[in-house]
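[Primary structure, fold]
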Amino acid sequence: MRKSRKTMFFITISIAVIIFLGLVTLILSPKTLADTAYDGVILLVSVISIAIAIYSEIELNTESRRVEKMVHEINRMRENVVNDMAIDKNTRYKLDKIIALDEEIYKKVGGRKKTADLKDKKQTTQKA
């Protein structure tokens, strides 16, 4: 970016020198007043169009840097989301594995007691 700024600076300086030389030539020319005024208007329109082009280039350079930063931030966020999704997938896989092992342990131990069986046991122990 620094190189393009230097280039734009030198281009601007060279255009300013050319415009100054055109203005001096316009003043020193042996033309009539009407021709000089006409040439002055043409020179003024050229200067304004060049100034607008330079201003647009400077604004474009600034906006380009800003958009580049935004794209970089979006790419970083995208990488973070991908990493988070991978971690989430890995965590879900491990949790599923733990649940499967838990169910397997319960089956080997004798399975879960039904709530009706638990109520019957409490009633028989209370009566005794």
Remarks:
- The two ends are 91 Å apart (CA to CA).
- The mean pLDDT is 81.
